[in-house]
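Posting for a labmate who doesn't have an account.
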Amino acid sequence: MKQTKPKTPGVQPPVVTGHETRLGMLDRAGRKAVPLRKTFVQAPRGTESRHGPLKEFVNNGDLRGLRAYLMVVGACSKATEDGWTTGHDSMVWARLFDTDLDVTPQSARTAAWRTLLRLEARGLLVCDRKRGSTWITVTLLREDGKGGAYTRPVGPNPEDRWVNLPTAFWKRRFDGRIDVPGLAMLLAVAADKQWARFPSDYSPDWYGWSPDTTERGLRKLIELGLADRREAYIKTPLSPTGSTLVYEYNLKKWMRPPRGQKPGSPA
């Protein structure tokens, strides 16, 4: 009978964290930024509604779903014969989404699958799991949530304009320190011009969330050191002073990839 060697006493397998799994995923993608069409944040000018799919995450307080979606976009780094697709064991997805914290492995797998199903219901991706298998395949759809096939965000059309979210956002662990308003406004500031104003009263029309969400989100960006704020004055001829103080916001330089850089340029 074949003898098996006994395990070395005291030797245990290493514990892999969600942070390590996310870094491994981004390193495998081999790029220094994750591209995201601006239509996820806001529809182009001239459309009936300016609201993008981001509104649903914000109004439902779905931080896990929003973080998961950005990670899926980062994971799908190239097209295959099945589209922009990637597949992993459900436990890998669980670590990517932090659904494995303080729960049983089965609960972690189930929570990861349900997170992906929420993203599918919002028209952002298609997920597939064969009966009896723990392998989950995810295929990206276009960021506007209308169910169109995903393509690399390049082109002259307004619908193809994008932002590059640097992988340093994850490497420096900001993804674990930010909240829903902060992450929403991070994407909104990234999608706008440099040193833009974000009057909270316009938030319901521009983005579909409350003025309070905009104000709390901007404060969070300043608190975390992800953005800068400066004062500016605008003319208001009918006011007592003739001018009004406003604030303008811009992401930190390390959060703004150089102009002209292609979406998700390789590291």
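Reply:
Got it, the structure tokens are right above this. The chain has one domain: 18-255.
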